[in-house]
Structure formats: structure tokens, C-alpha cells
Amino acid sequence: MVIGLKYGRVIPNDIEVREKSYDVTKEFINKFKKKNNSIECKDLLQCDSSTNKGRFEAKNRNSFKCLSKSCTRCTTYSKRNSIKKV
Question: Quick one: pLDDT at residue 5?
Fold first, then answer.
């Protein structure tokens, strides 16, 4: 959402702005993957939260809270640095 707010289109069909937004998004995803080895919830949680068993496992390990804090911290730091550069 932050990328969209910073780099989103004001004028529909503004291809240049859209491409810039895509580039920044790709850069962010690549940095996140490098730090966390994945962007997939099942990989980050180390279980499949789309199943009852996986949700139970994640809840018992407190994975949702721990992962959320970790990813939020990583995301905030990464975006803050990216936005400052532009």
C-alpha cells in the first residue's frame, strides 16, 4: 500500500508512472525475499495456514504474531530506506 501511495497513478493510463511503481514493487519483493527467503505465507510460517492443521500449528507456535512483527519491521525498514532515496 505504501508503494501505491508513493508511486501510484493519479492519471489513468499513465504508463511511465505505472512502470515506476512496478519497478519499486519488484525491488521491494526481491529485498524481502533475500532477507526472508520467500514471500509465500506457507514458507514464512513453515506450515500451510489454509488448512485447519496448519492454522492450529501456527497458532500454537505463536507464528502469526512473531512473523507479523518480524515482517512488519523488515518491511518498514526497507520501505523507509527506499522512499528516502527517491
Answer: 85
Q: Which amino acid is at 66?
A: C
- Whether 29 is in a domain gets the answer no
The series of mean pLDDT values per 10 residues for the chain, 86 residues long, is 84 91 91 89 88 90 78 64 53
Q: Per the domain annotation, does 55 fall within a domain? A: yes
1/29 Cα distance (integer angstroms): 13
Is 6 within a domain? no
Q: pTM above the 0.85 mark?
A: no
In the DSSP assignment, the letter for residue 12 is T
Contact 21, 4 (CB under 8 A): yes
CA of residue 76 relative to chain centroid, distance: 10
In the chain, the number of structural domains is 1
* Residues in the chain, total: 86
